[in-house]
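Final report, Chapter 2: Outcomes

The project's central promise was a pipeline that accepts a single protein chain and returns its three-dimensional structure in a standardized token representation, suitable for archiving and comparison. That pipeline is now operational. To close this chapter, we reproduce one record exactly as it appears in the project archive, with the input sequence first and the structure output second.
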Amino acid sequence: MTEAPFGRRLLQVTGIDELGAYRVLRVADPEGFGPTPAPRPGQFAMLAAAERWGGGEDERPYLARAFSIARWLEGEAHYLLEDVGPGTKRLCELGAGDGLWVLGPLGTGFAHPADGRRALLVGGGVGIAPLAIWQDELEREAGIGRGPADSAPVKKSPVTVLLGFRDGPRAEGAALLRGARVATDDGSTGRHGLVTGLLAEELERDAHATVYACGPSRMLEAVRAMCESRGVPAQLALEAGMACGFGACYGCVVPKRGGGYLRVCVDGPVIDAAELEQVEEHAGAPA
């Protein structure tokens, strides 16, 4: 696990890009993540705008918001946002030159497939974010090169990507990853139905895979149950309300199979599906 330096850092936004219903917040981090290595795929950071970070008549400060690191380029981190409330709305308003408080990277990331299994990435809604940086790493390790326009890979990717969205505008978020097969609830883009339908077909075709999933809680529970019934290992990136991000407040706990609890911020957010009896309703990303 990559551990962040204790204390948040004031960084500068380099830009924010539209991606259908989502926004990609780009943040300059020329020093990297302090004295630590680059973030691991699946880790997250706590973000807060440097200015106007509060609401109500007294402008009471919001808690920092947890976001998966969607991409890590040299000197720049990317985060996928959706305007779903006052905190995310304020972050979506940021522009180049604005200040951003960042604490991270935090948490435990994805582990590589074992036993020669292929990587099967399954995402839903804004939960696709950590799968992008994971795809980057897996393809880089496999020696996947890309053309000058960053288009066609030189050889076939070892990664299969399945993404599900509510509608067409959100399905534009699939551009964050490469070569994704898409399903939408309303049938406006890709297959009409749930991404778990695509997953069932993939596992029927070849179950020698490790599934990596992040998305709404119902999707994650369906993935967990499907993989358990087929004996397929799965790693689930959970989301829960966090006040601190480093295990002090116990606000993000989920029940562990066999008793006890796991803290999503430090024991996760990536948790082996075998450690969970089920994925609770509060432990998923927005759809």
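Archive annotation: Helices lie at 86-92, 129-141, 168-171, 195-205, 217-230.
This record, like all others produced under the grant, will remain available to the consortium after the project formally closes.
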